[in-house]
Amino acid sequence: MSLQPGARLGPYEVLSLLGSGGMGDVYRARDTRLNRSVAVKLLAEHVVDPFALERFQQEAQTASSLNHPHIVTVFENGEADGRHYLVTEFIDGGTLRDWSRVEKRSCRQAVELLVGVADGLAAAHAAGILHRDIKPENILVAQNGYAKLADFGIAKLDQGSEQSSSAITREATRQGVLIGTIAYMSPEQAAGKVVDARSDIFSFGVVLYELLAQRRPFGGTSDLEVLHQIIHSVPPPLPETVPSALRNVIEKALEHEPVDRYQSMREMVIDLRRFARVNTSVSVATEAGVASPPARSNRVGRMWEVIAIMVSALLAVVTDGLSSFDQTGTVRLTRGSVRSGPTTSSI
User: Fold this and answer.
1) Core-most of 29, 102, 226, 318, by most CB within 10 Å?
2) Would you identify the CATH topology of the domain 8-89?
3) DSSP single-letter state for residue 71
4) Which one, of 314, 334, 46, 319, lies nearest residue 176 by Cα?
5) Phi/psi-derived region of residue 82, left when phi > 0, alpha when psi is between -120 and 50, beta in every other case
6) How many CB atoms lie within 10 A of CB 190?
7) Is the pLDDT of residue 19 over 50?
8) Of 257, 307, 229, 322, nearest to 339 (Cα)?
């Protein structure tokens, strides 16, 4: 049963319901001690089995261990009247999906928004933590255009080949089956194989692909068909409107074999930052009306044009001088000119 505005969870006063999922509800609340808005994730009353509770507590421990400006900050993990809750910072916008629907976004805008999230994911990987559920709903965007990665609820420590996961979920995470979201899974995750950081890289590539192409790279009429596409197919090419440099980044992230992808999220962050930097410079120059520096071949061409003009002028002077010879061989000089000849010159 959802809480009504005004209800209390310890020191937190519920203001409104933000959303619901298989694990419970998320509320906007006010921390009465510090008088600040927070988000409170309340574990559903019917979710009381040890597995769900362990996962809920794991999210608190995992997320609180990460300190990055593009990862949602966890403040507290508590219990009130037998109900467990998780308190995080409140992001005053919506999800990445909401952000993309407000207006058509350019490639540069998309990359500038998500490169920070990619950096946050790289920081999580460096700490040995996999997210395993990268999707637009788990990327929150503040009204000031600042994006943060949320919901490490099904994250686990990267324990290499000793661990594998075979369970899957529908797009709306179901109770008790909490390993990922089908549409954004990597091939190895969809096949129930061992996953590592490169699986998160693939999922991040799917998010970027969908944002830029306005469609998912893998589709189907059923979950089973989508899984088959992910495991056995390659995504259609991105639209030609996506710059080739950015297409190359996304295609590399979406390579079917992990060994062919970026081997670390940090590598992908570097390429995304390079793209954003170059395209921002070009955009600023264009908006300011500043032309790009001429190519070397153009400069060389102009140099030869100048030389040709000078040669033409010189030939004109010489021709004019030759036409001034008389039959005796005397050169008739014009004002400002100096000529020589076999006879006495006169001005």
Assistant:
1) 29
2) Phosphorylase Kinase; domain 1 (3.30.200)
3) B
4) 46
5) left
6) 21
7) yes
8) 322
Give the whole-angstrom CA distance, residue 57 versus residue 76. Answer: 11
CB 7 within 8 A of CB 14: yes
Of the ranges 27-36, 57-66, 71-80, 276-285, the best mean pLDDT one: 27-36
Q: Note the CATH architecture for domain 94-287.
A: Orthogonal Bundle (1.10)
180, 133 Cβ separation under 8 angstroms = yes
Helices (H), the chain: 50-64, 96-102, 107-126, 187-190, 197-213, 223-232, 244-253, 265-287, 296-322
State yes or no: pLDDT of 251 exceeds 90.
yes
The set of catalytic residues is: 133
Task: Extract the tokens encoding 323.
Answer: 């036409």
For the chain, the helix, strand and coil percentages under 3-state DSSP, each to the nearest 5: 40, 15, 40
Check residue 333 and give its pLDDT: 43
Q: CA 102, CA 299: separation in Å to the nearest integer? A: 45
pLDDT score for 184: 96
Q: Residues of CATH 3.30.200.20 domain(s) within the chain?
A: 8-89
Question: Would you call 85 exposed, middle or buried from its count of C-beta atoms within 10 A (0-12, 13-18, 19+)?
Answer: buried
What SS3 state is found at 295? Answer: coil
Domain with CATH 1.10.510.10 in the chain: 94-287
Q: Write out pLDDT tens, residues 115-135.
A: 999 999 999 999 999 999 999
The answer to whether residue 49 scores a pLDDT higher than 90 is no
8 A C-beta contact, residue 37 and residue 28: yes
Model-wide pTM > 0.90: no
Instruction: Return the biggest CA–CA distance within the chain.
Output: 125
Stretch 147-170: mean pLDDT? 62
